[in-house]
Design goal:
Number of strands: 0
Order of helices and strands: HHHHHHH
Radius of gyration: 23 Å
Distance between the termini: 54 Å
Helix content: over 70%
Number of helices: 7
Structural class: mainly alpha
Strand content: under 5%
Length: 159
């Protein structure tokens, strides 16, 4: 707690805050970081295996293999979310499951499942895009800015 906020507390509240902080269990930050790294890496490695499978067994090129790979990862994530498995993995692995595209699919599927009793339009459609809407808007805006910068650089460079 910052000193500015501490000044607003009474002496008894400050003493209790110090008492509580001293007895609060330490978080295993290094362990959490290692688990997140390993699980996130494992998800990405699995995605690479899927991508290689599509490259070797179907008529995909390195430019076209990305979309079906992401679609398979999203489908697997949604199925694991529906079965309740993804949440257990996420509790154990932390941010490692939140960072790849599977984490985004999990959050949308979870919101859709949670609000399905409210109907398909107002419940599932409306609530799942509360989270997804901001991510989609930010992604579209970021893409616009990157293309704008690239266009200006191309115009100035003459390439």
């Amino acid at each position: 707690m910052s000193n500015k906020k501490k000044k607003k507390l009474t002496p008894a509240q400050q003493e209790y805050h110090s008492f509580a902080r001293a007895r609060e269990p330490r978080r295993p930050v290094l362990r959490n970081c290692v688990l997140a790294f390993l699980v996130g890496g494992a998800i990405c490695l699995f995605g690479q295996f899927i991508s290689d499978f599509f490259l070797w067994n179907f008529d995909f090129t390195e430019k076209t293999v990305g979309n079906p790979t992401i679609a398979v990862l999203i489908i697997i994530s949604v199925v694991l979310t529906a079965l309740g498995v993804y949440d257990h993995i996420a509790q154990w692995a932390g941010a490692g499951t939140a960072v790849p595209v599977t984490g985004f699919a999990n959050s949308i599927a979870s919101a859709a499942m949670e609000h399905r009793t409210e109907g398909f339009v107002l419940g599932v459609g409306g609530k799942m895009f509360k989270l997804a809407g901001s991510v989609i808007v930010f992604g579209v805006f970021s893409a616009f800015v990157v293309v704008l910068i690239r266009t200006v650089i191309t115009m100035l460079g003459g390439s």
